[in-house]
Amino acid sequence: MKTDFYLLATYVKEPQLFAIQPHLDAIVGKGQWNFDLEDCDKVLRLHCNYGTKEKMIRFLDRNELFDKELHYLESEQYAHIGKVRPLSVYNIAINA
Questions:
Q1: What's the confidence (pLDDT) of residue 81?
Q2: What is the pTM of this model?
Q3: Given strand 4-10, what is the order of strands in its sheet?
Q4: Average pLDDT for residues 20-37, to the nearest whole number?
Q5: Which superkingdom is the protein from (predicted)?
Protein backbone atom coordinates (compact mmCIF):
# COMPACT_ATOMS: atom_id res chain seq x y z
CA MET A 1 0.00 0.00 0.00
CA LYS A 2 1.41 3.38 -1.00
CA THR A 3 2.22 5.78 1.82
CA ASP A 4 2.68 9.51 1.57
CA PHE A 5 3.64 12.40 3.77
CA TYR A 6 0.94 14.78 5.01
CA LEU A 7 0.95 17.95 7.09
CA LEU A 8 -2.10 18.93 9.11
CA ALA A 9 -2.57 22.22 10.96
CA THR A 10 -4.22 21.53 14.31
CA TYR A 11 -5.36 23.18 17.52
CA VAL A 12 -3.59 20.59 19.71
CA LYS A 13 -1.95 21.92 22.85
CA GLU A 14 0.71 20.22 24.92
CA PRO A 15 -1.64 18.90 27.67
CA GLN A 16 -3.86 17.23 25.04
CA LEU A 17 -1.04 15.10 23.62
CA PHE A 18 -1.25 12.49 26.37
CA ALA A 19 -4.98 12.04 25.82
CA ILE A 20 -4.83 11.68 22.04
CA GLN A 21 -1.58 9.69 21.70
CA PRO A 22 -3.26 6.23 21.92
CA HIS A 23 -5.80 7.28 19.29
CA LEU A 24 -3.11 8.54 16.93
CA ASP A 25 -1.13 5.32 17.38
CA ALA A 26 -4.27 3.28 16.66
CA ILE A 27 -5.12 5.25 13.53
CA VAL A 28 -1.67 5.68 12.00
CA GLY A 29 0.74 3.50 13.97
CA LYS A 30 3.57 4.26 16.35
CA GLY A 31 6.42 6.18 14.79
CA GLN A 32 4.31 7.27 11.84
CA TRP A 33 3.33 10.68 13.24
CA ASN A 34 4.76 13.57 15.21
CA PHE A 35 3.84 17.08 16.24
CA ASP A 36 5.63 20.37 16.05
CA LEU A 37 3.80 22.29 18.77
CA GLU A 38 6.26 25.17 18.56
CA ASP A 39 5.00 25.93 15.07
CA CYS A 40 2.14 28.45 14.94
CA ASP A 41 0.02 25.84 13.08
CA LYS A 42 0.67 23.09 15.68
CA VAL A 43 1.64 20.85 12.76
CA LEU A 44 0.90 17.13 12.80
CA ARG A 45 3.13 15.23 10.38
CA LEU A 46 1.84 11.90 9.09
CA HIS A 47 3.46 9.14 7.07
CA CYS A 48 0.51 7.05 5.91
CA ASN A 49 -1.85 6.31 3.04
CA TYR A 50 -4.64 8.63 1.91
CA GLY A 51 -7.41 6.67 3.67
CA THR A 52 -5.56 6.79 6.98
CA LYS A 53 -5.04 10.53 6.59
CA GLU A 54 -8.78 10.94 6.11
CA LYS A 55 -9.46 8.88 9.27
CA MET A 56 -7.06 11.13 11.17
CA ILE A 57 -8.79 14.26 9.90
CA ARG A 58 -12.18 12.87 10.98
CA PHE A 59 -10.82 12.05 14.45
CA LEU A 60 -9.29 15.51 14.89
CA ASP A 61 -12.36 17.23 13.48
CA ARG A 62 -14.73 15.33 15.83
CA ASN A 63 -12.60 16.54 18.73
CA GLU A 64 -12.40 20.11 17.41
CA LEU A 65 -8.64 19.84 16.91
CA PHE A 66 -8.41 20.02 13.10
CA ASP A 67 -7.69 23.28 11.30
CA LYS A 68 -6.63 22.46 7.72
CA GLU A 69 -4.34 20.38 5.56
CA LEU A 70 -1.09 22.12 4.71
CA HIS A 71 0.67 21.75 1.40
CA TYR A 72 4.40 21.69 0.84
CA LEU A 73 6.91 21.36 -1.94
CA GLU A 74 8.13 17.83 -2.67
CA SER A 75 11.66 18.93 -1.73
CA GLU A 76 10.40 19.91 1.76
CA GLN A 77 9.08 16.46 2.60
CA TYR A 78 12.07 15.50 4.75
CA ALA A 79 13.08 19.00 5.85
CA HIS A 80 11.69 18.36 9.35
CA ILE A 81 14.03 15.48 10.16
CA GLY A 82 16.01 16.29 13.26
CA LYS A 83 14.04 19.46 13.93
CA VAL A 84 10.94 18.07 15.64
CA ARG A 85 10.91 17.70 19.40
CA PRO A 86 10.25 14.13 20.50
CA LEU A 87 7.19 13.41 22.64
CA SER A 88 9.46 12.83 25.63
CA VAL A 89 10.09 16.59 25.69
CA TYR A 90 6.42 17.00 26.53
CA ASN A 91 6.74 14.50 29.42
CA ILE A 92 4.68 11.88 27.60
CA ALA A 93 5.67 8.25 27.90
CA ILE A 94 6.40 6.97 24.40
CA ASN A 95 5.36 3.40 25.26
CA ALA A 96 2.14 4.40 27.04
A1: 46
A2: 0.75
A3: 33-36, 43-48, 4-10, 66-70
A4: 92
A5: Bacteria
- Whether 35 contacts 82, CB under 8 Å: no
Give me the sign of the Cα torsion angle 19, 85, 13, 72: negative
Contact 32, 47 (CB under 8 A): yes
Listed in sequence order, the residues at least 6 apart from 31 whose beta carbon sits closer than 8 Å to its beta carbon are: none
* Position 10 pLDDT exceeds 70: yes
- Buried b vs exposed e over 79-89: b needs ≥16 C-beta within 10 Å? ebeeebeebee
Q: 67 falls in which pLDDT band (50, 70, 90)?
A: very high
Count of residues in the chain: 96
